[in-house]
Design brief:
Order of helices and strands: EEEEEHEEEEHHE
Radius of gyration: 22 Å
Number of strands: 10
Mean pLDDT: 88
Helix content: 10-25%
Number of helices: 3
Largest sheet: 6 strands, mixed
Distance between the termini: 30 Å
Low-confidence stretches: 14-20
Length: 226
Amino acid sequence: MGFFDNVQVDHNAKQDEDRIGYEPIESGIYKAIIEMANGVVSAGGARGLRLVFKLNIGGKERTLIETLWFTTKDGKTFTIDKKTNERRMLGGYNHAQALATLLCNKDFMQLPTEERLIKIKDEPERVPVFINLLNKQVALAVLKVKENARAQVNGTYENTNEVRYTNSIDKIFDEKGFTHKERKDGAEEPTFAKQWKERWTGKEKDNYKEVKETASNAQGEAIDFG
């Protein structure tokens, strides 16, 4: 029997491709079009708004995907500060509310949804789509974030000492640069956007923390197999 007997090769199957890893967007404020806005539910039950933005940066089209988690797993849009006992709205809810009010002049919970079949990670899924947000233009304050890469250890994901760079939406503006609060307060100029640009443009937010070796993440001594 030959070494390759019983090996099945499908030459029509998708094969390896030459790809460069994700290149993060530099921190800055960019105009963007909302290509998709759909609801998602995490394995634990938290609800989120998945957004696909199209940006044009230096003549090159970029895609930015972010999920705004606007509830906890038990359906609350807020958390309780353990020190002050104050209720604080989730960051994801604040962003979702900003989008709804700036673009649609509605509370986020009032936005209608429509069930549609879309592709998520190349797989078709039927999801609720926030139709009023589609194809709307916004401005995004995007941060380039330095953080710990995560790896699965004993069934759970833990931080490692490997560095990775990601992007995070820090603030949402309308196309003229006003924040939700500025519009609500009747501001005459978009001053926060100017302050943000001075503070963050071209810089990175450093969330990286060195991980001390523990029993679960220690690499151990390499074995010489000869």
